[in-house]
Amino acid sequence: MSDFYPLISQWYRRNHRILPWRLTEDPYKIWLSEIIMQQTRVDQGLAYYNKFVEHYPEVSDLAAADEQEVLRLWQGLGYYSRARNLCFAAQQVVDEFDGIFPSRFEDIKSLKGVGDYTASAIASFAFQLPHAVVDGNAFRVLSRYFNDDTPIDTGQGMKVFKAYADEVLSVENPAESNQAIMELGAMVCKPKNPDCENCPLNGTCLSLKEGDPKTLPVKSKKIKVTKRYFHFLIFPSANVQLEKREGKGIWMNMYQFPMIELKEKKLKSEVSAIVKSEYDLDLGTKIFAEKHILTHQHIYATFWKVNKPVEKEGLIESNLVGLDQYPLPRLIERFLENYSEVFSD
């Protein structure tokens, strides 16, 4: 156990990826990177991190930004509540901490959208505080190293693996210790094909000695998935009709084509009757259909032509060029990338 940190730190110094947030101790930039990288691949997240640092070099710049502008910059990254939380938390830093990013763990955790994991990451990476970071990669390394099949998605699992993480954490160098275990999980101790032969811990990993690393970690719960059926109504014209999604839920404060949502799959004739009843429109040909997968929801989206503009309170119109000023969900953005010719004179 005593050689856990020396082994992974030596491996990390030789093999880690050079990423901009690892080259700074600025808590604001580290916070940005942690929020952006949640549920995001490094190659995708890197481009967004660079955009945000360029647009908002200081936390005060982000605090003063318009939420719609931030959502537009976030467009395509998904999980848009993260972007809204960024705005709120930046304003907290300005209002509650005089514009100086907090350095105490409890204060960091008080920021909107920041939980134990993110607060631990910022505390250790920016301030060298001895807080163990337990993300998906760390869960995987620790469950395999200790050959522990306690489900990681339970309260007991959180306690068990947090204790393991604290046990192997280097209190003298918590930043490198946390980075090393997460990088090992990302590059070597992978979910499906762990590279045990080249793992620096292969001499003491209990699951490699006593079991099968690929069976760990264990989860006890299956995610309940809700099916939703979106029918977007498009009148072919140079003017694109948009509506703003209000209230809580996916894509809040973002823009989409006018649509109706149904609770179950319907035949075209049934959809046509509903559209006729609600908007006095004739449903035309189907332009495109796609299953859009989110963590807890599967959206079955169909884009239909209709015979005239939709009449509905709150609709706005824009030409294609003007759409750049509106934050759009990735589903709508992808439609425009492939079917923008629908909106022509």
Quick description:
With 345 residues, the chain is α+β, with helices and mostly antiparallel strands.
Question: Can you offer a commentary on this structure?
Answer:
- One of its GO terms (molecular function) is 8-oxo-7,8-dihydroguanine DNA N-glycosylase activity.
- Keywords: 4Fe-4S, DNA damage, DNA repair, Glycosidase, Hydrolase, Iron, Iron-sulfur, Metal-binding.
- Pfam families: HHH (PF00633), HhH-GPD (PF00730), NUDIX_4 (PF14815).
- Belongs to the Nth/MutY family.
- With 345 residues, the protein is an alpha+beta fold.
- The protein has 2 domains: 4-215, Endonuclease III, domain 1; 226-342, Nucleoside Triphosphate Pyrophosphohydrolase (Alpha-Beta Complex).
- The chain is 43% helix and 13% strand.
- The chain is built from 14 helices and 7 strands.
- A 4-stranded mixed sheet has the order 4-1-6-5. Strands 3-2-7 form a 3-stranded antiparallel sheet, with no helix packed on it.
- A hairpin with a 3-residue loop joins strand 5 (283-293) and strand 6.
- The longest helix is centred in the N-terminal third of the chain and has 16 residues, at 81-96.
- The radius of gyration is 24 Å and the shape is globular.
- The termini are far apart.
